[in-house]
Amino acid sequence: MEIRKLLFVTKFEDLCYDALNSLLALRGAALEHVVFLNVIERDKVAMKRGSGYLKEEEVKLKETANIRFIDWAENLFEMGLEVGAYMEVSSLIPEILRVVDKESPDLIVIGRSHKGPLEQLYAGSDVMELIRRTDVPVMVFKHMRGDNIVPEKLFERPLFATNWSKTGQKTIEYIKGLKDIIGEIHIMHVVKESALKSKDTHEVQKVRKAERKKLDALCDDLGDAGINARPHVYVGDPQKEIEKAAKEYQVSMIILGSTEKAALLERWTGSISKNIADKSIFPCLLIPGKKDI
Amino acid sequence: MSKKVLVVDDDPDVRSFVVTVLEENQYIPLVAQDGVEGLEMIEKEHPDLVILDVLMPRGSGIRLYRKLRTDENLNHIPIIMFTGIALRSFLKSQKALDEFKGGEVPKPDIYLEKPVEPEELAAAVKKKIG
Predict the structure, then answer these.
(1) In this complex, which of A78, A86, A103 lies closest to B89 when CB atoms are compared?
(2) Do residues A48 and A99 lie in contact, with contact meaning Cβ atoms separated by under 8 Å?
């Protein structure tokens, strides 16, 4: 699957032109159209006692966004890309879904969720709500270091953590569509400690060997598609091990198939993809699986 | 007989401004809010002139402009580009697309950068279709 159209959701404070710029490597894959979306939260223009609906504030916020988008759009137009823009007063996720419906993008790019832990517990994370309600892959963009520098080559060295699910298979097909811009991909599988029948060395090595064989086959498959891939088997807590591997191999982003857990269960127990999307220092590309709401 | 002018712009305030200028100058205004709707209107209504924005959702003005300039059934329709995007950037985009897609699409005759005074817009329309 190729990424021809990208939806870039920004509040300006989290995702700016530098982030967009680092995604433009996708032009080498197939990218030809970028759609900007700025959602102005309702409470910024909401009815206030004594002043009513803040229409002037809405106009001001939309114009500010428009000026910013025009500046970005000029740069993209000059590269020969198509550009569209939406500025709406609305709620974030319903508005993203409305624009997805109109534009049919191949990738949604969004900043990490700014909700606090308690708010996430009751209302859920924006990112995971989006993943649950769309079939479109979502990139959660991060500035990787404290100095807010964006990764220059986002697709140069990704890490794909597979759990051998159907979603993982869908993710592999998506990765193949990026073959022209991926330098080298690291493919890992984390064996949970609970999955090891016994702790003796022989048993552990047996499991490692079996998983490594599966990873080798996957790497060969990707190699046939023109992507250089390196396999890794880790043992332990998946979230921690994925983060560890990402640091060890200095990857440019983490690619995950999103879980198929029911929404409420996920909210209370968490999921690997949710936790990594929200907490990892690395940008994350999440490929949604079958809906299970 | 009054001539039909199609305004393609996603901003309702801009559409309203252009419609007012057109009505005051005895043209028949038609409106579309994005490139896709704009093309549908052109094929249905056969306007005498199109006033076209560039930065729009659902098919930008760039795509519609190139369609109108390269489709032999539509390339007789004059276009006024009316946008916040600088002419310099527009021309660079055309050059990049010409190189990428092959061929050369002609430059627009009239390119107005927003905002403009009503008189300037009316004069541009008159210059193109009388």
Answers:
(1) A78
(2) no
Give chain B's mean pLDDT.
95
CB contact under 8 A, B56 and A86: no
Mean pLDDT of A199-221: 88
List the 44-63 stretch of B: residues with Cβ below 8 A of A: 54-60, 62-63
Report how far residue A204's alpha carbon sits from residue A227's, in angstroms, rounded to the nearest whole number: 30
Partners of B54 on chain A (C-beta within 8 Å) are 73, 77
- Residue A209's SS3 state is helix
Q: Do residues A138 and A127 lie in contact, with contact meaning Cβ atoms separated by under 8 Å? A: yes
pLDDT digits (tens, 9 = 90+) for A81-117: 999 999 988 889 999 999 999 999 999 999 876 555 5
Determine the pLDDT at residue B73: 94
Q: Which of B58, B90, B93 sits opposite A84 (nearest CB)?
A: B58
Render pLDDT for A190-207 as a digit per residue (tens, 0 to 9): 998 777 766 677 877 888
Cβ neighbours of B93 in A, within 8 Å:
77-80
**The two structure tokens encoding residue A278:** 């929200």
Residue B116 pLDDT > 70: yes
What is the SS3 assignment for A92-117? HHHHHHHHHHHHCCCEEEEECCCCCH
- Which residue spans within B26-109 are E strands per DSSP? 28-32, 49-52, 79-83
Query: What fold characterizes domain B4-129?
Result: Rossmann fold (3.40.50)
Q: Do A79 and B96 touch (CB under 8 A)?
A: yes
Q: What is the pTM of this model?
A: 0.88
pLDDT, position A202: 80
Are the beta carbons of A70 and B84 separated by less than 8 Å? Answer: yes
- Give A70 to chain B, closest Cα distance, Å: 6
